[in-house]
Amino acid sequence: AQSVTQLDSHVSVSEGTPVLLRCNYSSSYSPSLFWYVQHPNKGLQLLLKYTSAATLVKGINGFEAEFKKSETSFHLTKPSAHMSDAAEYFCVVSPFNAGKSTFGDGTTLTVKP
Amino acid sequence: KAGVTQTPRYLIKTRGQQVTLSCSPISGHRSVSWYQQTPGQGLQFLFEYFSETQRNKGNFPGRFSGRQFSNSRSEMNVSTLELGDSALYLCASSQDRERFGYTFGSGTRLTVV
User: Fold this and answer.
1) Which of these, A49, A94, B64, B71, is most buried using a 10 Å CB contact count?
2) pLDDT digits (tens, 9 = 90+) for B42-60
3) CB atoms within 10 A of CB A112
């Protein structure tokens, strides 16, 4: 069994300040973990992925995430928020046994000028 | 390289009708998954197909069905439409989802009146 919990449904930051979106997971197997971003009325776009290589993963648009097995976390960060980062973000866990992927409920990021 | 193509983009149907949505995955991707997204329920997994076989299925009633063709294109069908079926339906394809994640289409916006 697996699950994903995105700890904040809404996060609001000012432009130029750091972003932290939190994700905890549980999985019976060593999973792959992903972050996706969805802008209004668009499909989801892959931001970054963890697949058991380096624990610090860099993605597109300056985002990165750190896999912490001991804390079962995969938090998404960005040093400096930009207005274009305003969107909904999804944390996803995919098992290696061909079982279905599990999406978190999403975190809406608001960036204030 | 063409992305995931979903047709049509927008659709308005009457309660009780049926509808078929189409998804053309990225060339070489054999896995296709379908999701329903609504403001109240978030992203809900419908089903996943791999090489014409349904590999995983979500918790939706039998009115929701899908299939995948030998060229990996996929269709989903909803019969006896209900008002609650109004949603954004997203298709995602993958070459190897545990390693590379998904590529999503822009979705089909279905409105049931």
Assistant:
1) A94
2) 899 999 999 999 998 999 9
3) 11
